[in-house]
Amino acid sequence: MPNRDKKFLAVKLGGGSKFLGDYDVFRKAVSHFANEKTSKSSAIGKVCSVCGELKDKVSARTFVYRFNFDTDDKPGFIAGGFDKGNNWKNIPVCEDCRTLLKDGKGFIDSKLNFKFYGLSYSIIPRLLTGDEKILEEIISILSDAAQTVSLKDRIKRRITSDENEILEFLADKKDILTLNFLFLQRQRSAERILLLIEDVFPSRIRAIFNAKDEVDTAFKEDFNFGKTRTFFSKSDEGKRESDLNKYFLEIVDTVFKCGRL
Fold first, then answer.
1. Host domain of residue 222
2. What is the tens place of the pLDDT at every residue in 17-38?
3. Do you know which Pfam families this protein is assigned to (predicted)?
């Protein structure tokens, strides 16, 4: 079967009333095979690098990404003297945290992704206080961007081309959290980080929108990053793909970090 063709097979038992996942023996079998995969780069009685607690078993096999970077096929990247037996030291993760990481990655992929002039980015919030209600509010805004936008009875300002952009709404928040902007390029065999903008305060986003208002008023034209993208997309219009992403993202990074262009 060609790699591009995907098929789905559903098996029902008990007269069509139950799926395989409804049976404990099947769930245990799936869990067993999953644990076998993590045992290859594991250690007993070590501290998990995520929760910081001593666990019965940790493993460097997180299986968070579709194409895993936590492999031991390149000895030069293995901690502990290039010994594959010490590969678990690279990123020791317990089973509970592995599940949380996989669920979190799935949530980011499905809810926190936005478009940015031919690129895609994720907004990942980091709370600076212990108030979980604030975190829930921010996650609600991010995860249901379309509803957040539609509920506003004002004309929403945007600095990107995404109709669901919610940066203006996040700019209204206090500096009790920071936002991380992760630009990823998904290719056939890997996910490559193009840019990671860390620790952006809501006040910085407000400053960007205030600067946008001044420019819009001065030039009587709606300004956004699309104006910049016009000059930093392709070096030749005949090219199929954008080859100036690096330079465009350098400008974006500088703007969000309050640097000099």
1. 112-256
2. 777 777 788 777 776 666 666 6
3. Cas_TM1802
| pTM for this entry | 0.75
Last residue in a domain, options 106, 129, 162: 106
> Which tokens go with 50?
């995520």
- In this structure, the answer to whether residues 199 and 231 fall within a common structural domain is yes
Task: Choose between 103 and 188: higher pLDDT.
Answer: 103
Whether 100 and 144 map to the same domain: the answer is no
Q: In the structure, what pLDDT confidence band is assigned to residue 141 with cuts at 50, 70 and 90?
A: confident
